[in-house]
Amino acid sequence: MDQDKVKHLEFIQAVITRMNTNSFQIKGWCITIASALLALYASTKNELFILISVAPTFIFWLLDSYYLMQERKFRGLYKDVAGISTEPKELKSYEMRPDLYIKGDYNFFNVFKSPTIATLYFPLCLILGGIYFYLKHCG
Question: How confident is the model at residue 84 (pLDDT cuts 50, 70, 90)?
């Protein structure tokens, strides 16, 4: 493999790593903010804090999905540059074109409902909503 292609792959890998780090940090912030709002509820007994915690959780779900979508697009780019893709796209040397990848695993909705994303955010939204409903109607 020539030196230009290796350097191009290193650039792409750096972007993938950055996207992965952002995704991990988003999950941490989501849990932190939801926990803080639950702590506010515990100290004030105002159910509104539980309901409010669903909004940032959903926003973090959208943001995390966006970063995973971008990461997948750059992985597709990496495969094309490395020559291991089943449907390679024509790319110039050092070209970073994630916009070429739009179908299948690169689609936002597919990422939004993917197990790596939905298994954290969907249950968290259900739990927070369930707690709010229980306290409002049964508690």
Answer: confident
Distance CA 115, CA 137 (A): 32
DSSP assignments along 101-122, one per residue: --SGGGSHHHHHTSHHHHHHHH
pTM given for the model: 0.88
Question: How many C-beta atoms surround the C-beta of residue 40 within 10 A?
Answer: 16
Domain locations in the chain?
Answer: 3-84+95-137
CA 4 to chain centre: 31
What's the pLDDT tens digit per position in 87-109? 777 777 888 888 888 888 899 99
Selection from 129, 124, 132, 135 nearest residue 33 by Cα: 124
In angstroms, the CA 125 to CA 34 distance is 10
